[in-house]
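ingest -> fold -> write
write: protein_1
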Amino acid sequence: MSDAKDQTVAAALLRQAVGLHQAGRLNQAQTAYRRVLDLAPDSFDALHLLGVTHYQLGELDRAAELIGRAVARDASNPHALSNLGNVQRAQGQAEAALETYDRALSRAPDFAQAHFNRGGVLIELARFEEAVGSFDRALALEPGYAEAHGARGNALRSLRRLDAAKSSFDEAIRLRPDYANAFNNRGIVQLERYEFAAALKDFDAAIAASPKMAEAHYNRGRALFRLGRPKAALPCFEVAVELKPDYADAWYRRGDALVQLRRHAEALDSYDRAAVLDPAIEARYFARLPTAMQIADWSGFAERLAALSAAIAQRHVRPFSVLGLVDDPALQLEAARGRADGMYRSEAPVPATARGPKSRLRIGYFSADFRNHAMAMQLAGLFEHHDRARIELFGFSFSVGEPDEMGRRIRAAFDHTLEVEGKRAVEIAALARDLEIDIAVDLMGYTTHNRVEIFAQRAAPIQASYLGYPGTLGAGFMDYIIADATLIPPESARFYSEKLVYLPHSYQVNDDRREISARTYTREEQGLPEVGFVFCCFNNSYKITPATFDGWMRILAAVPGSVLWLVETSPAVTTNLRREAAARGIDPGRLVFAGFLPSAEHLSRHRLADLVLDTLPYNAHGTGSYALWAGVPVLTLPGRSMVARVGGSLLRAVGLPELITESRAEYEALAIGLARDPARLAALRARLAANRTTLPLFDTRLTTRHIEAAYAAMYDRLVAGLPPANIVVEP
């Protein structure tokens, strides 16, 4: 066949191949392209487009070879260069892809798709500002390029420019109303803006446009979870893993939902499945060990605890998880700084503004727990006792659901209640500034449903952390933490990013109106033996470490007939702790578990206990003061960190410092000694009964005056133009 005829046939075959290619019939198109190459081995178009079909089929090495041959034949073709860059990017060769896109653009500066592709690889290289520039160039050339608007939104989101990111996604959706990725990504931005209901609508729209989009189902679950609806979130995660069985993050979030539903054993299975798929995932979230602690599942405890330091170094650990596991304030600070630096950036930093002297400070308290919650039970008296001549009280509530009895009591104590659930952090902070709040007090720290990001937006010229989170936030935007000298000794100040406010007695405020039921419980009613010493710990099970439990079992072994009275949080806890007792040679029946009772009745039944045994490194906090309020002595062993020194703070403030021990051996010996010396224990109980109403721990009015003095000192420094500094409040 003549060369001219070959060329004519090849041209016809090429047109046929292109038609098949455009129709999506890739295998047939490949056959036609190969026939072209049989006739014209150096055909640029056949080499290039055959390479594109291999790219579309995921056959990257063959695609790179063919498109590379085409580029070698015509290095000036920007389309081939752009497609070669796409292949290199898919092969993980981001730098090479960027260079190839730049070659394409040097030949065709107005090639919008190459600018778009260049922006995509710059996102992969974490060069987000440059990526925005590439997308802007693509959009200047093609304003209706919906995908470029969407990709630009992703780059802006990575830069934490959330308002601008949302605008980009808005435009992408306007141009393409069925654009599932844009709906999904806009929903992610709305999650990060704490607009959970709006995010949910976007994920629903993404699913409507693309029902099998696993990421949209996953994110829908995240939105429902943040709306306080874990039961509704769970099926979303399950659909996500059904659509994409190797979706490690969805398996992990499924575990989070199961934790909230108190299905801890199932949660552990879900976390384990995620870790098989992505061995690094536990280091990112570190939820498995804290969840296992919830049900006293200590399998692999030592190995998982050893991995904690490495996880902290990667800055992915939830700071609250560290508190109950590691008594090391340096590691706690590192974990907190990792969270603060990684998550809480200000979109528009607002400097602290100077204020003039004033006789009545505006104090804003921020919490999701103005409801029937342990923190609210302690704080209600503080709010009610504030001196309204000196303090104007604002409550910023981001609770989910209608107020319960405690919520109504607290709202009645505030001069102004602002229901800000669903509002963005920047909006809440701006509202606080508009109201001229002088001191914004965070009552949550890194606990569930916290809104630390509000403080990153500078809600007030002075910002303080109090009571709800027993540790540092590791954040430059939190000025003060309210403590006492037992809780944070001066030599430990370097482990706290905040300046320290030392109250003269205990940092902990307590409600002197807390009701104790008049009902007298019997041992039989509570499943306790008629005779024998009753050791007690009503702390949550996650505070019980193997080392603490070892000591408790040695105490029981040394005190015949004694029992350990614990709170029953789940059947799994009962089973696991009794198994652990048996493994240590203790009759499992000597562990008695108390079911749920309302607060007043729960306090009343405390009186059946002889001695409370504190936990380490996470001491009893509210549960410790409840026991003391009910008249039961508490034995504690302080550690190094704030969370591990609360017991000592409470005991000093109630006049029982001899119950503060200095070693595990002393702790165990004193517990055993008190169990064997009824007269000595009776004297302690009598002293506690007398001190309960006369010493500072339960003097709500006195503690309130001290906190007000702290606020005044903070404000005086501001007015004087001085930066935050440690403050000591005099008795």
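write: protein_2
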Amino acid sequence: MNQPNPAIVSQSAARRLPHGALLLFCLAYLLPGFLGRDGWKSADVSALGFMSELVQGTSAWLHPTLVGLTPENSALLPYWLGAWCMQWGPAWMPADLLARLPFALLLALAMAGSWYGTYYLARSPRAQPVAFAFGGEASPKDYARAMADGGLLALIACLGLGQLGHETTPALAQLGCTSLLFYALASLPFHRRTSIASACIGVVGLALSGAPTLSLLFLAGGLLIHLLDAPANTDERDTLPVQTAAVLAGCALLSSYLSLRLDLWHWKVEIPQASWAEFNGAMQLLIWFTWPAWPLALWTVWRWRRQLFSRSISRHLALPVWFVAVTLGSTLTTSAPDRTLLLGLPAFAALAAFALPTLKRQVAALIDWFTLLFFCGCAFTIWVVWIAMLTGYPSQPAANVQRLAPGFEPHFSALAFAIALVATMVWAWLVKWRVGRHRAAIWRSLVLPAGGAALCWLLLMTLWMPLLNYTQSYNALVNHTLEQLQPSGCVQTQDLGPGKIAAFSYYGKLQLMPLQSQARCPWLITEPRADLSAPTVVDKSQWTLLAQVHHPADGNETVLIFRRIQTQ
């Protein structure tokens, strides 16, 4: 017997977003950040360095290295994808742009997986809205489509997706595979063969992207939910739940075998410290990274609690809750909590979608007003700072830019200005539409949060792109260093991080070798110690300090340049 359902949705409220408008909106969020920028420090440009080594043949495909360094994340698939595109792409396209193409597709996969996952969860029998006495309630498909639109808007609105969702790192590959696995488990009762194939690809891809343990946890919990839900599910499209579980268990074994053979399983658990600073940092990350999905997700748990905590499994609640629980547990025990929390965004978005049919008008109005003030303020700030960079007025923002990015020379781009202006006008139209009489659609409360997040991201990636390239990349440091290396020749390195090595190798076109090698290069680049002195491994009888180079926008990014002492 079904538990009381809090969703009361009429057919008029179940209208969906137009296909064309939704597609254009997704493209407007997806493309900025992949186009027209350099590799950013440090994980983004580091991945580019590993891909370049694979393309040049100086690194083994099963064991990627970068001048002898191994990746921090034991992943293979992300580096393979970027390297393949760099190898097979057209010669007229920049190699770093080619490397980003598969990651743009992975973000698109994350969006699609989130939409379809929410859609099939909303098609579950226990997720359906209350039937009206005289008819007029939303039809199952229309209701599910409107909920899926809301889930996708909630995903785009999450603040943490902006930067990490546009970097060429294993985290984005993990997000794409997690979304694919989430969709597969959500659609199992409806499309058995397609779901099994998608789940196998997702779990193997997630393992090859450096998260084999998470892939097994996601799959194990999803299979258990499927088995417990199957007896209560009257849909006859999946009459073999046990056989389905057996096939997916085989995929899990394949994933485990590959992880063991390719040495992808490493101990990464870090027990969190029982301190206020640790707890406060985790809570702050959770609050801003998943905003505005997390308060809506909590509201969903509260409003649907009678189904969530009943004896019968409600897959539309249990599955996203399981994904969120696994992600949160991993976030607290990893050295990269933001990149781990990224994997929970599709599940957070699905839970947020199920809050929409239960929101009161006052709560929806509060969300709209807060969102309107927040994103209008952010967009206004971006425009004002951009104007100040070009004209020097207002003087205070212009002075702040010069102080934070000394040496930066802004320039006007007509294309960037036109795109930013059109985006701002669309935002103004969207605000006008939202405050008008279009109040029936259940996804209306997430239109402004998603639109505001997309607007601010697009403004940053157009108006502020030259400034961000200057401050967030190593190119300024590379250029200042190259001025000292005349003639350049080969360069040995010591204690440089993978980000700097990748920047010097790819953007500086330097032939780098570790100091421990037998090469006798005329130059040595190394990072200084805390007191800016040379590392003790540098032999002063062979090397003389030539220059100390600082990143103009980040004093902590410093390198020391040594010249080899010529001996007779």
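write: annotation protein_2
Confidence is low (pLDDT under 50) at residues 234-238.
Strands lie at 490-494, 511-514, 523-526, 543-551, 554-564.
pipeline exit 0
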